[in-house]
Every structure is written in structure tokens, then in C-alpha cells.
Amino acid sequence: MIQTASAPSTSERYRAITRHTIHRLPQWETLDPELRDAIGIVSHVLPFRVNRYVVDELIDWDRVPDDPIFKLTFPQREMLGDDEFNEVADLVRGEAGREEIRSVVDRIRLGLNPHPAGQMTHNVPELDGKRLEGMQHKYRETLLFFPARGQTCHAYCTYCFRWAQFVGMPEFKFEARESEELVAFLKAHPEITDILVTGGDPMIMKTRMLRDYLAPLLSEELDHVRTIRIGSKSPAYWPQRFVTDDDADDALRFFEEVVESGKHLALMGHFSHPVEIRTPMAQRALRRIRATGAEVRMQAPLIRHVNDDAQAWVDLWTEGVQQGLVPYYMFVERDTGAKNYFEVPLARALEVFQDAFRQVSGLGRTVRGPSMSAHPGKVRVLGTTRIQGEKLFVLDFLQARNPAWVGRPFFAAFDPDATWLNHLRPALGRDRFFFQDELEEITVSEAGILPVMSA
Asked: Could you tell me what percentage of the chain is helix, strand and coil, using 3-state DSSP and rounding each to the nearest 5?
């Protein structure tokens, strides 16, 4: 049973801090002017939003600009190439008009692979000949749902692979205005057992909105839907959502209703660094969520400048398990946005994962990775080996467009600099990976175009 939380104080009420209001923060004036200028320039291209909880509780300002949470939330100069940065800087400093700046910024954004892994071209399902723009159906059992009111966050991660949702380009935005089409699609597809409600962050919504979207999923006619997942960064960036927000108790009561209906409810928590689960507010939020019967899982990409060392992951998984969380995924940073700033070679990602994995108990070894969410599916780097004197990567699929590919090991030539699947070459005399011919057939049937393996 959920105990009623205390009323929020003024300081606990959520307010977004953006490029237009950042100057009001007392910490802003402590930054080097050149750093302030760079943040302002880059935030014209990539989304920027933070809040006082992140600023006051998670960032160690004595370590700035090297603090990992600062890197995680404040845009950095190196996130844009020199030419792109200078072009935007010249316009902004020259006080160019809004439309002129926007034209250049949009062109730069289009060059940052705004929707990787076939999200727009191959993952959008259809019902009765109509594209359902607020959903993605890539894997047989799982449907992604993007509620329109949940397509923002309490704060933005600078590495976010869905950054295009937040920059005001409607043609790149996934959103569903209501749940009627969702219910209709589920009725037509009884093979779907899992719904992932994602964004953005669905927990940015008021509970009444969340209930409007999700309550229809609890009906008996959708018994084949066994699990509802909610992808959220809120326990890390605004844990007050579950403790002191004015409808925190309502949200948790709704969680209880979902569990009591017989569905499994999983909050897919995006935790990038152990600092995010160490504050008393975060720990209280996690206890309250788990008290509803919901499960909290932990996932994040391996991000250079933020968590690209084994000890950060050891601490994250160990302390998370202590709080009852389930380590789930270590992802490889996707090939989109500021990837050049954040990406880590696959060989290094594997080294970090294996080093951390060896240091945690069996309860922490539920985690899987490093995993690439690429066009064919979720490809895991299992390890390295030598066959006939050749050093190889060993990979497999954790999820795939064809479920028959899942769990089937395959090999790629070892490349110490490769950061994504399309950088890898088949090994042992093969000129194609085992799945590529069928992937092309699948892709042609889905969209009438050939795949780009990195897309």
C-alpha cells in the first residue's frame, strides 16, 4: 500500500531550465565565458533542458567541466564539427534572424542521422493501409508506443539517440494523440505481448494523461499483452515525480492498478552513472515505485566522458541491485547526433563490460551487452577469439527482425577502431554476414528499399 507523500515545497516544483533561462542559475556565472558561449551555440542545434535537481544534486561543480553529469546534460563544443560550430556561431554572434539561423541549423541536423536503425522507414506499422506514426513494431513480441504528451523529458541527455523528437522538426517526430489506434493494432496482432511506452519520457505527463493512454490496455480483450514497460529517466533526473509532485501518489496508485490487473509493470530506468541513484530523493522514489509491485530495470549506453570505465558500471550495478533494481542492458552509443563525441570503439566497450561483469555478483549479471540497436536488430558483442590464426569478434542477436537469428553466433574480423556494426567485415573468407541476404528481402517487402546496415 502506498503511503501518502508530503506536499511539495516551492523548491521541489519542477521547472525546466533551457538556453533562454540558464543565465538565472547562480552556477552559470562560475563557468568560463568560452564554455558558456559554446553551450549557447551548440544548444541551437542539439536539444538542451535541465532542472534544479540535476544542477544542485547531481553535478559536482568543483569538477566542472569534467564532471560526468555536467557532460551528460550540458552541450559541449566538441559535439559539433568545427565547420558546423563556426557556421552557427557566426550567425548567432552576428545576430542573424531566427529564420536564417533555423535554416542552417536544420541542415546541420539532417546530417546527424536523426532517425537511425530504420525507425522512420522500416519500423512504423500499418493498420488497414494507414501508417501509425506514434508506434514502432520492429520485433515480433514488442510494440513501442509514443504518447504525444510524453515527448519531452525532465532533462535531456546530450547523447540521446532520440534527440530529433525534441528540436521542433515535426517530420521527425513520433507521437500518438490517443490510444484507440494502439488498441486496434493490438487486437489485430495477438503475437504482441509487450508494450514499451517511450518518448521522450512518459512520466513527464500528469497521471490523468498517463491513465488515459494506458488504462485501455488493462481490458480482458487484450489479455495477450502481458507486460507494460515504461521507459523513463525520471527516477534519475526528477525523482520528485514519485515522491513530492502533486500527483505522485496518483501515479503510484495507477501503477498498483496495472499490477493488480495481472499485467507485469516494468519501469525501464535510464541510469547512466551511479551518482543518479545515490541521492536520498532518488532512493525514496525507487522504494515507492517498487512498493507498488512494479519492477525497475537499469539500462544505459556506454558513453565516453561519462561512464567509459568499468568502476562506474560496477558501482551502478552493485548499488542498483542493493536497492532492488535489475541490471538489464549496456548499450553501444548509437550512430546519431553527437556520436563522434560520445562513441567508444567496440573493442573498448567489450573490455569495459567484461571487466565490470567479472566484479559483480550473480544478481548483477542479469545485464547484457555491449549491445548495438542496429537495423537488423540488437547485436551483442560476445567477445573475441582466434580461429585459424585470425583474431575475430564473436557476436550474436539478442533481438532481430527475424526471430530465427536470435542467439546464433557469427564472426567479424577484429577491428580496434570499429564503433558500429557497419564498420565490421565478415570473417573466415565470407563476404557477407549470414543475415544480410534475408535482411534485404525483409527490407524490400517492408519498405521497398534496400537497407543500410548502420541505419
From this structure: 40, 20, 40
**Domains of the chain: total:** 1
Number of Cβ within 10 Å of residue 179's Cβ equals 18
pTM over 0.85, yes/no: yes
Tens of each residue's pLDDT in the chain, 455 residues: 556 655 444 457 899 999 999 999 999 999 999 999 999 999 999 999 999 999 999 999 999 999 999 999 999 999 999 999 999 999 999 988 999 999 999 999 888 887 665 555 578 899 988 999 899 999 999 999 999 888 899 999 998 887 777 776 666 667 777 889 999 999 999 999 999 999 889 999 999 999 999 999 999 999 999 999 999 999 999 999 999 999 999 999 999 999 999 999 999 999 999 999 999 999 999 999 999 999 999 999 999 999 999 999 999 999 999 999 999 999 999 888 888 899 999 999 999 999 999 999 999 999 999 999 999 999 999 999 999 999 999 999 999 999 999 999 999 999 999 999 999 999 998 999 999 999 998 877 655 443 444 44
In a domain, 31, yes or no: yes
What is the Cα 87 distance to its own chain's centre? 29
CB atoms within 10 A of CB 309: 13
In this structure, is residue 75 part of a structural domain? yes
List of residues 6+ apart from 275 with CB closer than 8 A:
58, 68, 69
Of 132, 155, 135, the C-alpha closest to 241 is 155
The parent domain of residue 50 ranges over 11-110
First to last CA, the chain: 46
Q: Distance between CA 296 and CA 330 in Å, rounded?
A: 15
Q: Which of the 8 DSSP states describes residue 122? A: T
Instruction: With respect to residue 74, please indicate whether it lies within any of the assigned structural domains.
Output: yes
Whether residue 67 lies inside any domain: the answer is yes
